[in-house]
From TrEMBL:
<keyword id="KW-0645">Protease</keyword>
<protein>
    <recommendedName>
        <fullName>PA domain-containing protein</fullName>
    </recommendedName>
</protein>
<dbReference type="InterPro" id="IPR045051">
    <property type="entry name" value="SBT"/>
</dbReference>
<dbReference type="GO" id="GO:0006508">
    <property type="term" value="P:proteolysis"/>
</dbReference>
<keyword id="KW-0325">Glycoprotein</keyword>
<keyword id="KW-0378">Hydrolase</keyword>
<dbReference type="Pfam" id="PF02225">
    <property type="entry name" value="PA"/>
</dbReference>
<feature type="domain" description="PA">
    <location>
        <begin position="127"/>
        <end position="188"/>
    </location>
</feature>
<keyword id="KW-0732">Signal</keyword>
<dbReference type="InterPro" id="IPR036852">
    <property type="entry name" value="Peptidase_S8/S53_dom_sf"/>
</dbReference>
<comment type="similarity">
    <text>Belongs to the peptidase S8 family.</text>
</comment>
<dbReference type="GO" id="GO:0004252">
    <property type="term" value="F:serine-type endopeptidase activity"/>
</dbReference>
<keyword id="KW-0720">Serine protease</keyword>
<dbReference type="InterPro" id="IPR003137">
    <property type="entry name" value="PA_domain"/>
</dbReference>
Amino acid sequence: MDRVIRDGVDVLSVSLSGRLALYYRDTIVLGAFVAVEKGIFVSCSAGNSGSTKATLANVAPWIMTVSSETLDRDFSAYAVLGNKIRYNDVSLYSGRGMGKKSVGLVFNKDNNTFSNLCLPGSLKPASIRRKVVVYDRGTNVRVEKGRVVRDAGGVGMILANTADSGEESVADSHLLSAVAVGRKTGDLIRKYAQSNPNPTAKLVFGGTVLNVRLSPVVAPFSSRGSNMVTPQILKQYVIGPGVDILAA
């Protein structure tokens, strides 16, 4: 921050946040104070600490604190199970689809957290080859999970949320046919895969859907107020697009 101040920028946008601290112990807040003294406008992320109250960061009065909001569009994708139930959610996968034919659906029944998370080296190719697999979101990068599945011979992935990520779905540009689903849908798909003797699925991609309602709304992952350092100052100041976008 000292360097960009010396460079004479007009606007400083900081997409960083940490634990809330008193102003004199917060390096971002201190750097922003110096920048504002030099006439530089400073905008900072409100934080990504979820939907519980009093999780805001960057709450100093000289900072424009910005939360993330959703768009009025979705990047639709569907998981169609062998029982004819279709679950709607999101994906930015843009490659070749799976076609009209369903394939086998696999979910690890051994409660092995290592393989449930689809970590590198955790899969047995013989069990997932030419199948759609269900994996838990968390720990490693979402797109990396797809690479692990693809390299092991799988043709598709359903990335299902757990209690930690709730119902927030993120549309990623996956490396193979993949759909992200919320926790409730994920639990239903897991139950189907475990209880059916011959579970199947196919993934379908519907492209961009406009005029989604209700929107915009504050993103589930975006931190909430109140301002716990100086409660008399209302924060956050504004919300802006921050879900399924190229840049903020």
